[in-house]
Design goal:
Elements (H helix, E strand, L loop, with lengths): L3 E4 L5 E4 L2 E2 L5 H12 L7 H9 L7 H16 L12 E4 L2 E4 L7 H17 L3 H13 L13 H27 L3 H14 L4 H13 L3 H17 L6 H11 L14 E4 L5 E4 L2 E2 L5 H11 L5 E2 L1 H8 L9 H16 L12 E3 L4 E3 L7 H17 L3 H13 L13 H28 L2 H14 L4 H13 L3 H19 L5 H12 L36 H17 L5 H12 L2 H23 L7 H24 L6 H21 L1 H7 L23 H4 L7 H14 L7 H4 L9 H4 L16
Antiparallel strand pairs: 1-2, 2-3, 4-5, 6-7, 7-8, 9-11, 10-11
Helix pairs in contact: 1-2, 1-3, 4-5, 5-6, 6-7, 6-8, 7-8, 8-9, 8-10, 10-28, 11-12, 11-13, 14-15, 15-16, 16-17, 16-18, 17-18, 18-19, 18-20, 19-20, 21-24, 22-23, 23-24, 25-26
Amino acid sequence: MGVVRFELLGPLQARRDDRVLDLGPAKQRAVLATLLLSVNRPVPIARIVDVVWQGEPPGNGTNVVQKYVAGLRQVLEPGRAPRSSGDLLALTAGGYVLTLAAGSTDTDLFDELVRQDHQLRTMGDLEQAAATFRRALDLWRGSEALAGLSGPVFDAARRELETRHAAAAESWADLELDLGRHLSLLPDLTGLLSRHPLRQDLHAAHLLALYRTGRQAESLDVYRATTQLLKSHDQTPSPRLQALHTRLLNNSADLLPPAAGAGLRFDVLGPLRASRDGLPLQLGPSKQQAVLATLLLSANSAVPPDRILDAVWPEDGRPDNGPNVVQKYVAGLRKVLDPDRAPRSAGQVLDLTVSGYRLTVVPNGSDLDEFAARISRARDLRACADLEAAATELQSALGLWRGEPLAGLQAGSVFDAARDRLKDDRAAALEDYAEVLLELGRLDALLESLPAQIKEFPLRERLRAVLIEALDLSGRRTEALAAYDETRRLLVGEYGIEPGQVLQRLHTRLLQDNEPPGGRIPRPEAATPPSGPFQVSRPQVPSLPRRTRLQRILLKVLAAALPIVTWGFACGPMMAVLAWRRRSRLLGACAVGYFALQWTGVVMFTQSPEDFSGIFDDLGMSLMIFPFLICSVQAAVIVAPAPSAAADHDLAEEHRRVAREIAARSPLYAQRLGIGRPDLPRTFDDGGLVDPNHVPTELLAAVPGISLQHAVLIVVDRTHRGPFKSVEELAERGLLPHPLPSSTRDHLVVVHPDDGSSIAH
């Protein structure tokens, strides 16, 4: 008797040796589907009755279920002896259980193929990955999953399976586009969109396929129709779809299918290497490899020869005929990377432009590009609460690392800065992965891996926060508190700063011995624009503690009463204290004046003749009384003033000045403080600065002088042309007016120095 296989991806079916089994009437099939949805777990009879009869059970529900189970046993286990316990479908104390080996259902096979596909994509085998995805999608037999079965439980299972089908379809469509098969993809996309009309990534693939087949106007019409469809379902286009629309309008060159460089793969997350169609390439001597690395760090952008010389010969050993030497090494790289290039013709992979040499790298043509894409995808998945998929993407991204980036290349400011930046990107990915594992409850894996990661990145507070959380959730609160104390000793002892707010709040909760609340690790919000007119509040500068109105009134009363009750002797000292606190020369002069007038009056009054009251007594008394009355009024006016917008503006401007000094002196420390990153939790007040290399579209659009359209263009430009080296470069690239308005420049900062990196954040 052959093995029975079950198919849920379409009408419910069971097969034995490719022969379809007769599963009996509809209710009997529903009983089988209920058991399949809880395979290898006992299902109580009452649960089966609720699912199959949807709250309207027959009077003898238990007997009816037994009858249908008996019918299923006859079909699935015809050789089973009467009244014996079945191997496939058995009755236990907890209810009926359907026992199946792994891979006995088409859903198991679908999940396994999707897992294999992720591995193939990690290895760079896009062709085989696309074929594997196609096999997974072909498991669906035309119609929706569990077709013909109705009820809340089956509807929920069907929605979940259809979501997995849509995600697989989106990944397959992206692979087909990467392989340049846009023409053959269009018919399949039409069918997929009719099945999943609200999947925006499928719509994006459809727009791109239309554009690549020369149908730009049609693609724009389809975008307008898509926005109307989404609006009818109370949705708005995703940031990816909006950015693609902008690129379609601008005829961006990167929308065209890959041509030159197809099949080439570059890897920098470890020793530098290159391959064509999986075969390694010999890159020549070390200086030639350093030239290639410099071009890779600014892939698809022109690199002037002087910058190549600065990177490859960082010290005073630059050759006298530097441009000729660079030209020689570029010629050597062309022979390796573009062997079919005709002599003296423009290179397709490595060409010379007016601005310098440009290396063309196709999308996902480097591990650096793939790493950035996977991290971005993982954060989107996490924002959508798809933690399992986010963990898979993050694990795949971290698996691309083979050691120190650009290992083997000589030291120098350009390569050292690139290494620091790449290592920081890896640390951020490790933090994301640790937080996702914590949310999934995988504490053992975290406690095993985190100590080594913290040793590698001792200043990453998010890693330490996850370790403390994991220790606490594992019942090791004493060790969690010790881990916090170790962190604080490190930060205070070596850097003179306290732990951040997240760690401090976590420490407070541990000391209070409260139950750990759910969702402690902050999850990034989905970057979906709100419906209606796009409005984003401007990033606010955290304000200093404010006094209440009652507190200000009490301070004014006390300040006004002090000169009176002391007969003016407190006027001079009080004004001196205010002058020192406010750094005011005017108040200092007032303090001296009050002191002089008060004591002059005292001397005149005490030195006058005692036998009669004369002008000296009157004048002395006046000098004693009138100054302290004036001082009383002055103190009531200037003490505890109401907060003013001008004061807030001056304070924010001072904070921005200090933050810019930190960014100029120590970019890595500035990044740790979160300067220019209002999208991240932080304690340092940078006065509302925004870094255009990192923040999302909606925060860029909140900067004065930057519209939503400008913000979208900035994000697209930094993704494909690399980060901005200075604030002024926003205008130089034609993204903002030239010169930049002062109100715009005052709120922008570029934290990282120019290291030639092309990583987009």
